[in-house]
Amino acid sequence: xxxxxxxxxxxxxxxxxxxxxxxxxxxxxxxxxxxxxxxxxxxxxxxxxxxxxxxxxxxxxxxxxxxxxxxxxxxxxxxxxxxxxxxxxxxxxxxxxxxxxxxxxxxxxxxxxxxxxxxxxxxxxxxxxxxxxxxxxxxxxxxxxxxxxxxxxxxxxxxxxxxxxxxxxxxxxxxxxxxxxxxxxxxxxxxxxxxxxxxxxxxxxxxxxxxxxxxxxxxxxxxxxxxxxxxxxxxxxxxxxxxxxxxxxxxxxxxxxxxxxxxxxxxxxxxxxxxxxxxxxxxxxxxxxxxxxxxxxxxxxxxxxxxxxxxxxxxxxxxxxxxxxxxxxxxxxxxxxxxxxxxxxxxxxxxxxxxxxxxxxxxxxxxxxxxxxxxxxxxxxxxxxxxxxxxxxxxxxxxxxxxxxxxxxxxxxxxxxxxxxxxxxxxxxxxxxxxxxxxxxxxxxxxxxxxxxxxxxxxxxxxxxxxxxxxxxxxxxxxxxxxxxxxxxxxxxxxxxxxxxxxxxxxxxxxxxxxxxxxxxxxxxxxxxxxxxxxxxxxxxxxxxxxxxxxxxxxxxxxxxxxxxxxxxxxxxxxxxxxxxxxxxxxxxxxxxxxxxxxxxxxxxxxxxxxxxxxxxxxxxxxxxx
Length: 626
Ligand code: ASP
Hints:
Elements: H1 8-18, H2 22-26, E1 60-71, E2 75-80, E3 83-88, E4 105-114, E5 129-140, H3 158-163, H4 165-168, H5 172-196, E6 199-200, E7 218-220, E8 227-229, H6 235-243, E9 248-256, E10 268-277, H7 281-295, E11 309-311, H8 312-319, E12 332-334, H9 336-342, H10 348-351, E13 356-363, H11 366-369, H12 372-385, E14 390-396, E15 402-403, H13 405-408, H14 412-422, E16 429-436, H15 439-457, E17 470-474, E18 479-481, E19 487-489, E20 516-521, E21 524-531, H16 536-546, H17 555-561, E22 568-574, H18 575-583, H19 613-617
Parallel strand pairs: 3-5, 6-9, 11-17
Antiparallel strand pairs: 1-2, 1-4, 2-3, 4-5, 7-8, 9-10, 10-22, 12-13, 13-16, 14-15, 14-16, 17-20, 18-19, 20-21, 21-22
Bound molecules: aspartic acid.
Aspartic acid binds next to strand 21 and strand 22.
């Protein structure tokens, strides 16, 4: 039986036939004749714009690039990523050189000559030579009035830069970031695949919805009422690869999470996704440390390994956050006992609660550098984060005495104990917060970072830009209380319990720590992973009994876990965030070639875009009137 196959090329041909032909277009008025059918074959280049030096004097060369400057028909400066080269136009060639719009792409053939005395530019690698033009080809004339001047990109609003990303990409910083990213990824692959036996495997991006984790993007299918989802990570596939005997897997994996508009999130992002069989936590951490040492750019200094490790509990207690920025000290101190024993009326109702605590942090130089307005801005951070909780500010005066209404009510002995704990110096500012469990820590953790930025904005050096303080945060809780009751996985439901707590899984799941680990640098979480549950009964118990999830959606994984599954574990590093830290950029958008805006749209192509009802019919979808 013959079937009519419509291939995508035929479809595009049909579409092309429906478009107006060149002949039809010729009837329209153009401000200049359309440049059609005049494209000459391109003869190549002999050198880039950044490599000619005195050793090339006398050579005939051909260079290509974008017009960076053109002055008085006397010379043109050509630019490509490698550098700039000055081209001199001799008098007899002037008639052949058109008036070139900046950013036009041209090809120049000419002789390399030494620049005349006094005209050398020592700041340019090519500053001792120039190319004397013999022949010029305009490869692509740039239209006048581009939306912005490439040299001024830092003055241009990001929305406009994203709309014309192909122009923005010409700026040096973006070029440098993307090239560094490519180099680091290359070295990661070299380390993992060439030196450590990892297999680079691609996993599907059309998957099915499964329980737990982040919100997934839904993709319609031709089967009525059935949908694919885009995977939030290749988690299940990488575990299934271990069951399949792949042993050591890596993928530079695209992941998708539909988290609405969040400032530093992208709906699609890239992970260096790793999974290994027959490993324990130390093996995974050790591998990642060595991989980072291998791919770390020389210009960023040497990484010292092993990275320090900190338990989740310690991170929360000392820094008020599970991704501490350890480039500066100002740690949180527990002053519950001092305040409790001082018997102050204000604190009594709080301290009567069993899980209440009072914490304090000493901000070095805070009283000296912060205005009253700054201090009230800190107070509003507290209000945003925890209404009705206790928060006090104490200034340390020049003579070292503490200044605050609170201190007036404290006994001399309590004040001495506070000082002994916090070790304040004159000009410091003590922040004190009370609440339940880690509440006061979280408030002070935020304020600690806020104060560091505020001090830096006033010219005080708190964190060194060149420092990379890596650390592992370990021993996270396996489950967290869920809004509305019950518990949810702190990470994902496949994480194994900490061996010391595994016996509590059936009786006290909230007390169980996990074998999850996070990689943190300078206050950013850049990776996370775990040793996985590799036993079907335990996985089923966690899903059904602890998390109250429907196991049927994960039957493929549960089946696999009882089909000969090796113990395994892995990690995923967020490549975009890692690169933002390495490149020292404020936003991950600066290390992604074509990022989405904070609300998930592409200002350049205008995605997401409307699809006709006819096309939606194939997917049994009807748009609701809004
Ligand atoms: N799949 C996890 C994530 O995307 C990482 C891991 O457990 O390997 O966060």
